[in-house]
Amino acid sequence: MEISYQWLCEFVDIQHVTPYELAERLTQAGIAVDGVWPRTSGVCQLVVGEVLTVAAHPNADKLHVCTVNVGKPNPLQIVCGAANVAVGQKIPTALVGAVLPGGQISQANLRGVESSGMLCSAQEIGLESRLLPKELTEGLYILPDDVAVGTDVVQLLHLDDWILDLDLTPNRSDCLSIRGVAYEVAAIFNLPVCWPNPPEQTGQGTSPVQIRLQTERCTRYVAQVFTDLVAGVAPLWMQMRLLTMGIRPINRVVDVTNYVMLEWGQPLHAFDLDKVHQHTIVVRQANMGETLVTLDGVSRELGADSIVIADVDRLIGIAGIMGGENSEISSTTHRVVLESAVFDATTVRRTGQRLGLHSEAQQRFEKGIDSAAVRGAMLRAAQLFQQLFGAHCVGELALAGTSGNKDAEKLTLEFQPSACNRLLGTDIPAQAMADVFRRLDFEVSPREDDLWQVRVPTRRPDVELAADLAEEVARLYGYEAVNSTLPIGPTTTGVRTPVQQLRQETKGILVGAGLIEVVTYAFTQPHILSALRLPNESALHNAVPLLRPLSVERSVLRTHLLPSLAEVAVYNRTHGVIGGGVFELASVYWPETLPLTQPPKEIPQWAGLWFGERQASFGQPSRRYDYYDVKGVVEVWLEALGLLSEVKFQTTAAPWYHPGRSAQVVWRDKMLGTFGEVHPETCKGLGLDGGLYAEFRLDVVMETLAEGWRVGPLPRYPAMLRDLAVVVERSVPAAAMVQMAFSATVDVGILSACQVFDEYSGRGIPERYKSLAFALTFRHSERTLREEEVAVVEQTILRVWDAQFGAKLRRDEAGIL
Question: What pTM was computed for the model?
Answer without folding.
Answer: 0.68
